[in-house]
Design brief:
The structure is a homotetramer of 378-residue chains. Chain A has 378 residues and is an alpha/beta fold. The first copy, chain A, has 2 domains: 131 residues, NAD(P)-binding Rossmann-like Domain (Rossmann fold, 3-Layer(aba) Sandwich); 201 residues, 2-Layer Sandwich (Dihydrodipicolinate Reductase, domain 2), CATH 3.30.360. Chain A has 10 helices and 15 strands. A 9-stranded mixed beta sheet of chain A has the order 14-13-12-11-7-10-9-8-15. Chain A has a 6-stranded parallel beta sheet with strand order 3-2-1-4-5-6, with helices on both faces. Chains in contact: A-B, A-C, A-D, B-C, B-D, C-D. Chains A and B meet through strand 7, strand 8, strand 9, strand 10 and strand 11 of A and strand 7, strand 8, strand 9, strand 10 and strand 11 of B.
């Protein structure tokens, strides 16, 4: 395990020392921007930060672009080869924000070089790749996190608290869908190519639904799925539909599609328990719908002083955005690194990443073969 | 086929004659109340009515209760045996609002006695019973309608118009769920007993979803389902979850459950086409959500003078209720009887009732056997 | 006071006798249709009805139209002169659904002929006319109701119960607006003419807001208003805006306009108390928004067995419509007539109609003269 | 006017030079945190930034707290006397995030020392103070901005675009309310003290409503207001209610209160024009409700690539938060400084701050004296 550098950042009013941690990042596009913003923001908004991120270097293949990203986000250096990141002793945390086909190898290499790792979801392009990644990183003894960031939306964490407290009783239903509308976009997009992405809407969107289903409800035992590809010639799923059965007896549906006009980023889920229900829509991410007993749904504006993560932010009703989930996620990871504490259960580990991949694979098998598939883990 | 009585009801301002039709009803509970109200209301709100209902007699086994119902709703007589209704020549339309186990035999008998028939959904307790009912009634040459009343909600008919016009482009998704919360109710309820009801949430709620899926999107080719019974000892499904594939390539989910606290009568569906989307929630039945292209969802308050069925009602924005769907439905049936026109496509025929039953059976087979099931018709 | 005819309608299962009451109606347009429907519906849906309405006669000036209305709604006769209604001994309840300029004289005449009276709102075209109507009808000793039907929406009655119980604490705010969009309609419409209507949006829409403010919060002491007429040449207000102070210290706003595109029938109000808040929108009339303490707003779907008026209708979640408010209103009036009980506090009396008119007049004076106006009653 | 320092921050890929600007801040509480976050965020999210903020120093009276704030937000130094900021040549932009009683003197001094200034709203505690501040700062020839940040919410800017384009036709109504619930909070809070705050809910919340009314609709000519103080002994308004008339003939209401349980940060407004309507709720700040003609309200999720400010952020549907309004606001100010362009019309200048104060004063006079008040400017 890598040693955390003891660069004292000065003391806070409480007298606490803040140590630093060197971050090396792979990728500078959508996810690179989101992670970079999160490191920079947590440094002063979650105060004192568990560790103070030092942005050591960012890697990418297009030199002009990666150089610009380094300037923009304040990385001290840029690299055109991720191996240079792995070889850099100043990098203590390797942040893989690259495309799916660049998840496994660099992440494993970084971990085996003693760096903590965070990798964007899906962990691998299939269960095999995900399993291999998990096993080798686990063996390296470093902290690992699969970036299922929606666990770190305040309303989702509040839902977890409500469910864990038993207020919903026995969970009987989960229905989750992640719907977007851009599936007809043309051009050379890696997310539409099986060799690069592994799957289509399933790994991109469905994996998020699967992860929250596992986080909020529990393990999924069985799935029965269909997929559909609307664009001729595309070799990944444009949509996936599945029924699911959980170990605790709950049943429900999981769906992902990029062919839903008007749905910009509609990750919705509803959970029904024997004593109440919860519902959520990512397009209104500051709100949790809560029906206690049969009382009807109350809109909880998740922004009170005692709501999850809210101590970092603003007075009630001053809403936060999608990007803030990454601030909370990386804050959680840095805390785990600082304290040598577990990333789980609130953070997704590589084991969670692997388990989501097994479920994705089971859905694809079911879609192909026509039967329900049991989910089993290695 | 029964002859429509030529009892002139006076002329309207347009000089039109309104003939009467004798109605005999079986059942006086929830559905009996809804149908009775509809006959009485359409007589003056849909003006002039296609035929003027004459409430000849109502049948039920509990004499005190059925006598009270006759007084309440204005039936001229009551009967404690439905066979007396069938034998009554004044009855030209037999309205079966009884429990599922009383659908087939009385309905067939009435049709074979030359009466037009409307039967509550599900048509039969399974596909066999439904098929038999359809075949024999069809052979009798009378008008037949399966009371899938939600086809007659103005927002649903407007959705049908929008889809038929091509404004949504190719339909790619249907996701429908009918969720209620009363599944834990105790007592001797026929809806929880397989011999009386045929199935649980599937026939009661899921059949409505299936019918609207067929009405709005088209035939369903394949299903993959799970069921769950939460209450020990109950022999019907408390919940059903299914993936579905339509003949036109659309895919989606269908779900029904009575175990969703806070969901009072939440029949929701969303349809995504290549050019736009529609969404509906029965708890806000006057509203249709419509995203044209990618523009975001507009709340259409379905109450304009040129909206479906609205010529019978009020100025815009003066909302109607759930019961009004029955007024529209029976108005449609009486029109078909008067004009000897087709009940389909807007009204559900017994063939539609049978087809919904085949899909229900396919879901139950899939749930039991684990594989996806093709839907085939006899 | 008129005697209620003792025509027994048969006994209900409970053995209760239902007596009849002869109804004479003035007007067959929008409100005549709504009231007629209500009499016909309450006769069997509120079972047993307090009194069984006998539709004796309907009056209107256009013979062809009123004859058609009589046929349509089942009035035994029609009259082209309202005086014939007043002179008809079979008429025990005079229902004035005519335009504003026909409120005072026929209503007073009917009352002085010993008939109970219900009159559409606003009671008169101004406070003077309203006061005269109230005084003379009151002196006649009959039951009188001003048809502020929104008091009889289940969500409004539930709000009244919540406020009366003290659950909201001290009421500190009321903000109500009644917004529609049809103000640009052209043609010879009596609602746009001062001599016929008295005022514009104020008497038509604002009077409803004022009445609910009084019903839910209490008497209004002071107003400060502005009016605006957008259509050149029109002699009534197209919009009115007012601040209001209540006797209990609450402050707020009242607004009415017919110039709000997209607002079909948007009568919205919000009440804030020291312990909670309520909010309502007529376009979603089955819902009451309720924030207990600071907990956020819960959507109460007002359709439970123990919710106001719901014993007459359907299982929960099976929504009712705008027209049902009239069923409840007339049921309340018939009960008061049968039992010789008070129309107030849940029903609006002519005193309430007069008081609303004083507030309207105070708003118009304030708008004209520029100062706030105290509301005083004679 | 201060010279912008020519510290080149490196070139972007486009080859542009980014110069720096020294920022001195007064105040480190709620607004200090929001402004600091905005400077830090715009430095990389709005790329390249118009000027690169150099956080020179932050001033406050509590040394321990201000020292901690400097460490937290990365100010190079802290000061316990704001005069030291004014005297610091490195400070080119003076950001006044202090309480209302510290707005005028430090801001004027900074401007007269040649620094650009941004001051939190309300500009002064009354119109006199605001006018004096505006006049002296204007005379100093520096850029000045009054921090009415809600102009910089994407949905608000989009509304401005829609209105400016004429799509709404003539504006006929504005109704705005800013409602919160914390008015019963106890303790020594400067916002509840007249000498420190100037007014209560009016200056704190109502000023925001007034500013957006002016920005979106135009100048307000006349007001008629009431105020109410619910807490005994408090010398500021707990709530203000006002009718307003605009120069263009539109009429409406403006309201502010901190006594609305369940309303966390509910700044809502609706604008009706002759051709359409817009509506907004700050608790759902990413959404704009738009009714084109009479079509019903469409929820525009303001997050498309071509929506205002969105080029800085994320793919569509990935929502931003309240804090982002400050990023856009300061980006706008830095652009005006860099280009020597006007802060108006999209940014509020000190003249806008003064005009809002005149309207607030007119409301207070109206409330006290009982008559409507014309709004006149010096």
């Amino acid at each position: 395990m890598s040693e955390v550098g003891f660069v004292t950042m000065g003391k806070t009013s409480g007298g606490e020392e803040v140590k630093s941690i060197g971050v090396g990042m792979l990728g500078y596009a959508f996810m690179g921007k989101a992670h970079s913003n999160a490191y920079k923001t947590l440094a002063y908004m979650t105060w004192p930060p568990p560790l103070m991120p030092q942005l050591v270097a960012i890697a990418g293949r297009n030199e002009e672009a990666v150089a610009e990203a380094a300037r923009r986000y304040g990385f001290a250096e840029y690299k055109t080869d991720w191996k240079a990141l792995v070889a850099d002793d100043r990098v203590e945390l390797f942040d893989n924000a690259g495309p799916n086909n660049l998840h496994a190898e660099p992440t494993i290499a970084a971990a085996e070089a003693g760096k903590h790792v965070i990798c964007e979801k899906p962990l691998g392009r299939d269960a095999d790749e995900s399993y291999e990644t998990w096993q080798r990183v686990q063996a390296a003894g470093v902290k690992h996190m699969c970036a299922f960031n929606y666990r770190f939306v305040p309303a989702v964490r509040l839902a977890h608290q409500i469910i864990s407290s038993g207020e919903l009783g026995d969970i009987q239903h989960f229905r989750g869908a992640y719907l977007q509308e851009w599936g007809t976009t043309e051009g050379d997009i890696w997310r539409f190519q099986k060799d690069l992405a592994g799957s289509g809407s399933l790994g991109d969107l469905g994996a998020h639904v699967i992860d929250l289903a596992r986080y909020l409800v529990g393990e999924i035992d069985e799935v029965g799925a269909m997929t559909q590809t609307f664009i001729p010639g595309r070799d990944v799923d444009d949509a996936v539909e599945s029924v699911v059965r959980f170990g605790n007896g709950a049943v429900g549906t999981i769906e992902a599609s990029r062919f839903c006009p008007g749905r910009k980023n509609a990750f919705t889920w509803e959970i029904n328990g024997s004593k109440g229900s919860l519902a959520f829509d990512l397009e209104r991410l500051n709100e949790l719908q809560y029906s206690e007993g049969n009382e009807g749904f109350r809109t909880v504006l998740v922004s009170e002083a005692d709501h999850p993560f809210w101590e970092h932010w603003w007075p009630q009703g001053h809403m936060i955005g999608w990007e803030h989930s990454f601030v909370h996620e990386l804050h959680h990871l840095l805390t785990a690194i600082r304290d040598d504490s577990d990333v789980a259960p609130h953070g997704a580990t590589f084991e969670d990443g692997y388990r989501a991949a097994e479920i994705c694979d089971a859905m694809l098998r079911s879609a192909e073969q026509g039967g329900r598939e049991s989910v089993t883990y290695r």
